[in-house]
């Protein structure tokens, strides 16, 4: 199966650029592998506000209910400059599918940066978001946003990969989706993936297509559909939601299977819930049955082929 390459905004240090405060970079095995299947758009917000390499340490501290970005050795408050850069960068951003940011960074962190009570960074307050990371989340709440540390969790990694490849598929389909029939086909192929993320949004998209009339403005309908698609992926899919979709697809074959095959599949779902087998194992079983019973509708479901197998 051919996959469109997701375009991912990534912290430049994760792309092995020597832009960290001490002139180093971050080598992460999964990020290196991911680069073979994605287009990385690297950015270092600290370099972008004219801080050099190497540079003095930056910290976050809380002042009057605000999180401030501060350079202790130079006694400089860099918050406003970082906010201006973030605004200019993000408002001009288009044609992308997600963000992969540096964990614990005072600029890029999405939740685990150290925040202090004082400028001297002597008294710990809490963990929080970096200034740039916070602005990304505020401006693009429906897009996949992760850091390299969180992607070590298998379920979080799967969610991230499914989302960025689904959005890449959506983005690349825009130019060829020029009539309602093509939109219907796209929706049909993504039905079970969307069901896993948000059944209510799936229903809304189906209703939007079903109510389309010949004289309606198709481009407007397409725009509404695309916005619903993106917002549907904002949810986190847990095992229960995946299992619901697996059981729906299993329903296409259950009356054709013998007693032992049914028993085996049910046992695998129990093992999946108990972390003995992974999601891909169950998906492969359903693929085999789709081929065996020549069910093209199920074979064409993106849920069964959400991203390249090599990414795990």
TrEMBL record:
PANTHER family: INNER MEMBRANE PROTEIN. Coiled coil: none annotated. This is DUF1722 domain-containing protein. It comes from Thermodesulfobium narugense DSM 14796. Pfam families: 2-thiour_desulf, DUF1722. Residues 191-308 form the DUF1722 domain.
